[in-house]
Design brief:
By secondary structure, the chain is mostly beta strands. The chain is built from two helices and twelve strands. It is about 10% helix and about 45% strand. The strands form two sheets. Strands 1, 2, 3, 4, 5, 11 and 12 form a seven-stranded mixed beta sheet that branches. A five-stranded antiparallel beta sheet has the order 6-7-8-9-10, with no helix packed on it. The longest helix is centred in the C-terminal third of the chain and has 9 residues. The structure holds FE2/S2 (inorganic) cluster (FES). FE2/S2 (inorganic) cluster (FES) binds next to loops.
Length: about 160
């Protein structure tokens, strides 16, 4: 399922959503980061016709995902690769992926990608008449990337 919903029939942004920018500007930039609702650093990115939004700091150690490459070979899933330690995070679901070895005794070793579960908080993107909005995912369940959203981390990252 897509994280982006397009509401051409409606001219109203969804309730509790926050304006990010004009779609044409985001498409041109490819990636935009924004402090949403005064409390959360969100990365909005455009890739192959789709908009995605997620926490801006990598769940592992707070790396700047806006500088990550996007790759597709992991089980066909689109992932952003964190530039700091190359962790792979799916764009749609925020799942952390790892390479599992099928049989440690087999030669040559064969590996395939497995999910560690949702590690990066993904937010909802809506486009209304060329304006792009993000609705924060406020599910109460803790997600690892939340840790880099505290005041302490946000201020230290902004200074860095
Ligand atoms: Fe992203 Fe380590 S901070 S992989």
């Amino acid at each position: 399922t897509s994280q982006t919903s397009s509401s051409s029939s409606s001219s109203l942004p969804p309730p509790a959503s926050h304006f990010i920018g004009r779609k044409e500007d985001i498409v041109k930039a490819g990636r935009v980061t924004k402090l949403v609702n005064g409390c959360r650093d969100v990365l909005v990115l455009y890739h192959q016709g789709q908009l995605y939004a997620m926490d801006m700091h990598c769940y592992h150690s707070g790396g700047a995902l806006k500088n990550g490459d996007i790759e597709q070979e992991f089980n066909g899933l689109l992932c952003i690769v964190c530039p700091w330690h190359k962790y792979k995070i799916t764009l749609e679901g925020g799942e952390g992926l790892y390479q599992a070895v099928d049989d440690p005794l087999a030669k040559p070793l064969r590996t395939h990608w497995r999910s560690k579960g949702v590690k990066q908080r993904i937010h909802k993107v809506t486009e209304v008449n060329g304006d792009v909005f993000v609705t924060l995912n406020e599910s109460g369940e803790a997600i690892e990337s939340d840790v880099y959203q505290t005041e302490k981390y946000r201020t230290s990252f902004l200074k860095a």
